[in-house]
Amino acid sequence: MTDTRTPPPFLGDERTVLNNWLEWHRGTLAVKCAGLSDEQLRRRSAEPSTLSLLGLVRHMAHVERMWFRRILNGEDIPKLWGKDLDNDADFNDVDTASVAETFATWQAEIDRARAISAARSLEAVGDRNGRDCTHRWILVHMIEEYARHNGHADLLRERIDGVTGE
User: Fold this and answer.
1) How far apart are CA 67 and CA 94, in angstroms?
2) Which of 12, 81, 113, 143 could form a disulfide with 16 if both were Cys (CB 3.0 to 4.6 A apart)?
3) Is the torsion defined by CA of 132, 60, 107, 31 positive or negative?
4) Tell me, what CATH number does 111's domain have?
5) In angstroms, rounded to a whole number, what is the distance separating the alpha carbons of residues 166 and 157?
């Protein structure tokens, strides 16, 4: 995969800057996974951790779905990958997970999140377990969530084949 990410702008209105940082981090996770085999994407970090690149992609698909569709958009939709029964199913079930299906699901959740985000003001309010949170807060949280997990992805990728970098 060619790195097609566009660096976030130094100047811009709030929405532009937030959206571009989120897109940068979404793209970063894709870059970290690019060119790896299914086996490499499933490879765990180190016992007892179940952390893997495929698990991170599954987790971020779940996070996109939860924050944008369930919380901001109020959709009554099921969680992905058995999350109701196992809070770590994103990471625990990678051995039998379809890599192609996982990436397609992640992309579909990103596409839906983009559409929801574009239709809402930054002041729009979502409900997270009875607590209000703004669309702005969700965008900042998503940037933080991706940034944290992209650090994990960087270490996982380096362990797999030595590739490092943004």
Assistant:
1) 22
2) 12
3) positive
4) 1.20.120.450
5) 11
- CA nearest 103: which of 32, 158, 3? 32
Burial of 85 (0-12, 13-18, 19+ CB in 10 A): exposed
In a domain, 132, yes or no: yes
Q: In terms of residue numbers, what domain contains 45?
A: 14-161
What is the DSSP-derived secondary structure letter of residue 120? S
- Decide: 75 and 165 in contact? Cβ < 8 Å: no
Q: Which parts of the chain have pLDDT scores under 50?
A: none
Provide the pLDDT for residue 71: 97
pLDDT in tens, 103-120: 999 999 999 999 999 999
At residue 109, the 3 state secondary structure works out as: helix
